[in-house]
Amino acid sequence: MPRPSGSGVTSQVGQVGHATARALLRRLAVEQAECRVPSLTAAIVRDGRMAWFGGRGRVDGAPPTAATQYRIGSITKSMVAVLVMRLRDEGALALTDPLSEHLPGTPLGHLTIAQLLSHTAGLTAEPPTAWWERTPGIPAADLLERLGPAELKHRPGRRFHYSNVGFAVLGEMVARLRGTTWLKTLQAEVLDPLGMNATTARPRAPHATGYAVHPWADVVLREPEHDADAMGPAGQLWSTAADLARWAAFVGGDTGGVLCPGTLAEMREPAGVDDGDTWTAGFGLGLQLARTGGRRLAGHTGSMPGFLATVWADVSEGVGVLFLANTTSGMTGTLTTDLLNILEEHEPRLPDEWQPAEADPRLLALTGLWHWGPKPYAVRLLPGRGLSLEPVGGGGRASRFVPQDDGTWLGLDGYYAGETLRVAEDHLDVNTFVFTRDPYAPDGPVPGGVSGWHA
Q1: Known InterPro entries for this protein (predicted)?
Q2: Res 11: pLDDT
């Protein structure tokens, strides 16, 4: 239940203890005060549910709540990406398809759907219009007519280059394939099934007003808000902490039947790197990725005039975090990760209990030591009849495999992702690489022959 804690503050304890909630609220309060944010909400999601909520500042004279709307900007893109992946799973398109197959008549036709989703198409960041975030939008047909060769800034596939235009184009492609608007499609296929009823295209009460805060004085300026029209898929939506908590759970794997879990995992795979050699920030298929403090996060940030927002999910820990703020700039950039650190420090996640399981004797016989030449590998059984093949002591090619109907095994990840493992009586064949029980077994089918060990 809401607990008042100082002027202009709401806090909801949920699944965390009072000491943890106090520490989380203090971090939120420091952000709001020191960064001079008119109002700020944040939430922690654990195991699919909101574990903590905090609000600071004022919206129309009252503290913000989990039902207060803020504009979420580019978090919209991640939702549009889900619509594209649903079309892919239905067979309506392939990620390798050129855009011209589904949206003909543009000079962008050679760009693939995957390149647009991952911001690797080389397309310009902003549309050839007035500053689109601050002016009324134009129809999709008008935007497409304005796009020409000048909007292609890099060779497709060469590098990551964030493109708002790319998602405007993807939104129009979704609209044409579905025979309705991208927004109605999103409502019917994603928002309604997930129960995100407070996520809308335009603000509804209660909502925060977007402000710019003067850099040298404690005064604010109201920022404009318009229907972005054709650019809507790049950043139109408004949402609440409660709805974004459900979205964080979705990104973390609780898909609610909206998307196949395997497809969502595919979206979380790195397709481009945003910061060069350091690789702390990247992009999957419509999802931003970050590596920080040993965590691997997936989600998206959002920015529109007067608003900042972020939602992250840590799949391995089953936790999510988000914030919503009505300020154009000036926040630290570490609020979400600091909140996760506080949660981990005060209430670290307990590992799942180990329990014995049944094992097929034929699979059990495959476990143990195998050798790729002189290098020892271990085969282990995984839950759900899977196998892992990994070097003893680490430092080499490791992959997981799942059984196929024809008796072979398909690689899920690592070096052998997508490759085939075949089990013979005396060896394993992984895409022509032979593994034997003994290192270079003299009676094993090792290509090139084995002459025997000698001094």
Answers
A1: AmpC-like, Beta-lactam-related, Beta-lactam/transpept-like, DUF7586
A2: 63
User: What domains lie within the chain, and their CATH numbers?
Assistant: 70-346 (3.40.710.10), 361-436 (no CATH)
Angstrom CA distances, 453 to 374, 437, 449, stand at 11, 15, 12
Confidence of residue 4 (pLDDT cuts 50, 70, 90): very low
Whole-angstrom distance, CA of residue 151 vs CA of residue 108: 9
pTM given for the model: 0.91
- Per-residue pLDDT, averaged over 390-412, amounts to 93
Q: Which residues, at least 6 apart from 244, have a Cβ–Cβ distance to it below 8 Å?
A: 43, 72, 75, 309, 311, 322, 324
pLDDT at 169 over 60: yes
What is the rounded CA–CA span in Å between residue 27 and residue 50?
18
**CA 137 to centroid of chain Cα atoms:** 27
Q: What is the pLDDT of residues 195-247, one digit of tens each?
A: 999 999 999 999 999 999 999 999 999 999 999 999 999 999 999 999 999 99
> pLDDT band at residue 383, thresholds of 50, 70 and 90?
confident
- Please write the tens of the pLDDT for every residue from 93-134: 999 999 999 999 889 999 999 999 999 999 999 999 999 999
